[in-house]
Amino acid sequence: MKTDIPYNQLDAEGNKQGSSQRAQLCYRCLVALASVACVLLAAVAIYNFLTAPASSYHPALVSSGLQKKMESCSDPCKIVLVESIPEGLEFNSSSTNPSIFQAWISLMSEARSSVDIASFYWTLTNKDTSTQDPTASQGEEVLKRLAVLSGNLHVRIAVDSQEGKPQADLTLLENSGADIRKVDMRNLTSGVLHTKFWVVDKKHVYIGSANMDWRSLTQVKELGAVVYNCSCLAADLEKIFEAYWFVGGSQSIPSPWPSNFTTLYNKDTPLQLPLNSTPSSVYLSSSPPSFCATGRTPDLQSILSVMEDAESFIYIAVMNYLPTTEFTHPKRYWADIDTQLRRSAYEKKVRVRLLISCWQHSPPVMLPFLKSLASVHDSKNKLDIQVRLFVVPADPRQKKIPFARVNHNKYMVTDKVAYIGTSNWSGDYFLSTAGSALVVNQTDSQSAGPTVQSQLKDIFERDWHSAYSSPVTHNANLELFC
Ligand SMILES: *[C@@H]1O[C@H](CO)[C@@H](O)[C@H](O)[C@H]1NC(C)=O
Ligand SMILES: *[C@@H]1O[C@H](CO)[C@@H](O)[C@H](O)[C@H]1NC(C)=O
Ligand SMILES: *[C@@H]1O[C@H](CO)[C@@H](O)[C@H](O)[C@H]1NC(C)=O
Ligand SMILES: *[C@@H]1O[C@H](CO)[C@@H](O)[C@H](O)[C@H]1NC(C)=O
Ligand SMILES: *[C@@H]1O[C@H](CO)[C@@H](O)[C@H](O)[C@H]1NC(C)=O
Ligand SMILES: *[C@@H]1O[C@H](CO)[C@@H](O)[C@H](O)[C@H]1NC(C)=O
């Protein structure tokens, strides 16, 4: 990320079309006070700006209202890391964060005009999962409140159009007034819409690993971030939402994307804003690449660039980690991330830690590849990759809950940057599945308070050193582990 580009330059450099190129040229001339010719050109450009239809000048900016905000994002953005800690899990560490349930409730109570939710599937009630578990009450509460909001303000839901998933929650919301669009990712990319985020009043956002599933609030370990009072960031996440909405309407992926989906914020020119009063650079990445409009950093490039930037450590906590595709036929070897980890460990002596989930549905082929990574450990050669498996234990009652009791979080923290994502780490999630991530860089800040990076590192270390994680050793056996 280059952080030295001021908003007004970004503005000029974001311009691509004829009249805008003149504006860009002029911007520079004027700054240099170079010549009368330049001033004339400026007049022409200003004339063009005033007379051209808004959409032909800088559609992305004009139509989203970003033009003004880009000059300085002075929103009092407040970011909070939020977690779901499965019932019964206890940590020695003092690192405790507000719950995702609390975050969703507070987002709904802040909402005045709109709630947009990108989602994979909806099972917020016991009925949806054919269970009678008392811990479904939080999910049921969320659904009830969303139904009320759907009657009072504009609620839009983009959801994967998988067959065979329960529809009752969506039907209830639709009958209460919500607009719902199904995105047929299987047809479009052979993937799924796997993203999980909220945009409220075009001002507050939530992004993270939790599905719209009661288990994601009380029985599955999840991590996300909520950012309040941050319309600059919300406007950019809204563009990703609008992309799902657009595809949900047309059931086809535009190529190229219309210019109003363009973003100026990416790994090279991140959004500069205060987060908890700390100067920060931030951007949102998206996958698959066919869903990335001009300017958007694809999620894989985001992950690789965060890794390349690390100088002392890379800590990764993801549910699944595979240097392969999982769902293609035939299956493919896919080592982009794996290679970068080995390269960072070898060339820069970066300390690499992977905390991967282990449960009865873990793909068995994951273990040999994890052993292979873990074998890149040799103190003489300063190679330091370690891998651990995290197991969420279950009592007899909890064991009866299907697809629960697992560490489902998806994040990475380096000595520089915090990356909070929604994708499993195997090839499919970057090639065909829709996901997105928030990247927060506060390297330049001199702030004394905790940064997002330091908070995320605390969470990682809490889990890594907890009784729930154990090292992957040469003779480790998945069946004994999980
Ligand atoms: C974070 O910001 C620093 C300082 O501006 C920059 O050098 C670095 O490349 C950024 N890191 C990433 C991963 O974008
Ligand atoms: C996708 O949908 C189109 C239009 O409904 C249909 O003709 C096509 O067969 C579908 N493709 C796949 C791969 O399902
Ligand atoms: C957002 O800003 C409003 C108005 O300044 C303030 O009342 C509210 O507490 C803020 N929300 C959060 C979560 O900081
Ligand atoms: C861009 O414009 C189209 C057509 O008006 C609209 O459907 C779409 O939602 C807009 N995209 C964004 C990001 O606002
Ligand atoms: C991540 O991968 C697991 C195992 O393949 C899969 O069950 C799960 O659905 C994926 N994550 C989500 C929420 O799709
Ligand atoms: C807490 O610390 C004790 C003593 O060090 C250890 O035995 C126990 O496993 C730890 N519990 C967790 C959940 O990490």
From TrEMBL:
Keywords: Exonuclease, Hydrolase, Membrane, Nuclease, Repeat, Transmembrane, Transmembrane helix. Residues 189-216, 403-429 form the PLD phosphodiesterase domain. Pfam families: PLDc_3 (PF13918). It comes from Cyprinodon variegatus (Sheepshead minnow). It catalyses: Exonucleolytic cleavage in the 5'- to 3'-direction to yield nucleoside 3'-phosphates. It is a single-pass type II membrane protein. One of its GO terms (molecular function) is exonuclease activity. GO terms for cellular component: early endosome membrane; late endosome membrane; lysosomal lumen. PANTHER family: 5'-3' EXONUCLEASE PLD3, PHOSPHOLIPASE D - RELATED. This is 5'-3' exonuclease PLD3. It is found in: Early endosome membrane; Late endosome membrane; Lysosome lumen. InterPro entries: Diverse_PLD-related, PLDc_3, PLipase_D/transphosphatidylase.
